Amino acid sequence: MTVLSNRAKSLKPSPTLAINAKAKSMQAQGIHVISFGAGEPDFDTPENIKQAAKKALDEGFTKYTPVGGIDELKDAIIMKFKRDSGLSYKRSEVLVSCGGKHSFYNLAQAIFDQGDEVIVPAPYWVSYPPMVSLAEGSPVIAETTEKNEFKITPGDLKKTITTKTKALIINSPSNPTGSAYSKKELEKIAEIALSKNIFVISDEIYEKIVYDEFQFTSIASLSEEMKKRTIIVHGVAKTYSMTGWRIGYTAGSEEIIAAMNNIQSQSTSNPTSIAQKASVEALIGPQSEVEKMVSAFSQRRNYIVDRLNKMRGVSCYKPMGAFYVFPNFSSYYGKAYQGKKIENSTHLADYFLDAAKVAVVPGVEFGADSFERLSFATSMENIKEGLDRVEEALKKLV
Ligand code: PLP
Questions:
Q1: What is the whole-number distance in angstroms between the Cα of residue 100 and the centre of ligand 1?
Q2: Ligand 1 center–CA 377 separation, angstroms
């Protein structure tokens, strides 16, 4: 008898969490590591949101709630979709879970069966393929290119769809590339999804973190038909700097939401009661703190993209949203430091950590080995120092 299930044995831990753990342990040993690994804003949760949680605590709002979230939060989510995307949902079409990751997990469990193909454009968020696999679906990776701003083209999408395709995942703005689909691009994707009768899972968690004049569009808002084909995965973590509070949500058809609710009722039950109250305040309260965070991210993004593109042999796409850059370092592959050859993104990330004390996440983890992911959810001072170190380290490779 083996102790572990095949499921557990085939699963790798989340690489982004692993890099951060390694950087933190070096920091704990007194080593001055600059980390570009963070997947969370470096700002505190806004005060009004913390106050709402404290109030809930003081009022004794500390018991079980309905499995899929309190009506007050569902109504705030419904209001948010109406306000931001013109979408109308009922309470029975919304489910609150313990983070956007949990929302996606429940969704995968609710709609995928063995043999179902799920198109995952690469570079992808690290957790999509394992969560699809845990639900016994088959992730089908569709490569995108830097030239196409890391977006799946209608032609590639058509080529990838088979009779077994059940869903396409769209993550706009994207982790790790920061690329985002325009309304026009989404219209073409929607047309294909409708004609081929597949679902679109739209992960909109970075919706509010967009730059310059970019206008976010939800693919669900394109038509009533497309709304029926779309399941939106969202959450408060990134917009309101609430990563630790663990509140995510899903909007979709009543049938899917009811199945997800069942799964949640037999696993985690409701998300934390006081975090739900805090999320109501996040969604319906003043949004000025969000604007401040986005403005700080925007300045850092301009600086980091400019610096990286000035480095010899590095090219970096300018992200339209989220707080990551995804530069291409592949011109350094084949070079060496003290006789040790750098052959891929993992070698280069190890080299940056060992030689420059800079933590980045290897692109291979996102399905793109020519790149490294750098998060700019860290201070400008850290960004400057970290990039100086990266530049020096690259010069030492021969
Ligand atoms: N979707 C994407 C693309 C993400 O990058 C993340 C977090 O890194 C999530 C979903 C899940 O966020 P959370 O579970 O913290 O709400």
A1: 5
A2: 14
Beta strands in the chain (DSSP E): 34-35, 94-97, 117-122, 138-143, 165-171, 199-203, 230-235, 248-251, 324-325, 336-337, 340-341, 358-359, 361-362, 372-375
261 lines ligand 1 (CB under 6 A): no
- From first to last of its 398 residues, what are the pLDDT tens digits of the chain? 899 999 899 888 776 677 778 888 898 999 999 999 988 999 999 999 999 999 999 999 999 999 999 999 999 999 999 999 999 999 999 999 999 999 999 999 999 999 999 999 999 999 999 999 999 999 999 999 999 999 999 999 999 999 999 999 999 999 999 999 999 999 999 999 999 999 999 999 999 999 999 999 999 999 999 999 999 999 999 999 999 999 999 999 999 999 999 999 999 999 999 999 999 999 999 999 999 999 999 999 999 999 999 999 999 999 999 999 999 999 999 999 999 999 999 999 999 999 999 999 999 999 999 999 999 999 999 999 999 999 999 999 99
- Alpha carbons within 13 angstroms on the beta-carbon side of residue 227 total 16
Q: Does residue 40 contact residue 243 with C-beta atoms inside 8 Å?
A: yes
Reference 188, options 233, 226, 140; nearest CA is 226
Check if 211 has its Cβ closer than 6 Å to any atom of ligand 1.
no
Tokens of 377: 């959810």
DSSP 277: H
Quote the crossing angle between the two packed helices 288-310 and 380-395, to the nearest 10°. Answer: 20
Is the beta carbon of 281 within 6 A of some atom in ligand 1? no
Domains of the chain, first to last: 6-44+289-395 (3.90.1150.10), 60-284 (3.40.640.10)
Q: Does residue 121 have a cis peptide bond before it, meaning omega lies within 30 degrees of 0?
A: no
pTM of this structure: 0.96
Q: What gap in Å lies between CA 204 and CA 119, rounded to an integer?
A: 17
For ligand 1, whether the C-beta of 39 sits within 6 Å is yes
Kindly give the number of the ligand 1 atom that is closest to the alpha carbon of 40: 8
